[in-house]
Please model this.
Amino acid sequence: MELAFISHPKDPRFRDITGHQFEHLTVLGLADKRGGRFRWHCRCSCGTLVTATAKNLQNGHRKSCGCSRKKHGHCHGPYERSPEYTSWQNSKQRCINPNTPYYARYGGRGIRMCDRWLNSFEAFLADMGPTPSPRHQIDRIDTDGNYEPGNCCWATNMENSAHTSRSVLVTYEGETCCLSEWARRFNLNVKTLEYRIRAGWPVEKAMTTPGRSGT
Model:
C-alpha cells in the first residue's frame, strides 16, 4: 500500500509528530485534514497501517490498529494489567516518548529498549520472567546501558536506589567513592546527597552541608 502524504502547514503552532510513538502506533507522516483536524498515517507494531488525529493519539484514545482488542499480536491475557506489563510499558515510554516526565533521563540521553522487547511484551516476559513480587521493578545493571537481555533484572525500589548510589562515583579531596559511602561518612541521607550532586552543587558544599534532621 502506497501512502499519500500532505505538506506541513506554515503555522508556528503546528506540531510535527512524525516519528513519535504512541502505545503500539508509530507516526509516519501527515495524511490529510478532515473536519478541521489533521490526521496522521501510523503503523501499528503488528504492521497494519491506520490514520488517527494527534488528539486521539496523545490522549490515549487510539493505541493500536485494533489488534490490542483481538487475540493476536498484542493480547497479553492475564498479564495485561500485571506489574510485568506496567514495568515494560513504563520503561518503553521513558525511552521513546518525549512527552513522558523522565524522557530526558532516558531516551533523551540515548537509553534505548532493544527491538526484541520494544516490539513484543511476550518476548520481554520470556526473557525477564515474572516479577518475584508486585514490589519489584526493572533495574538496569549498567545504568548507562539499554533495556535489553543481560542488562536488566527485577529489583525492589530500595535495591534499585542502592544500585544507583553504588554506580555514581564522586571525587572529593582526591578520593573517589560511591555516593552511598560518602553519605555514610558525612551522616547524610544518600538521596539528599544524590539530589545535591545531580543539581550541580559544588562537591564540598554537597558533602558538608548538614541535612534536615540528620538527613
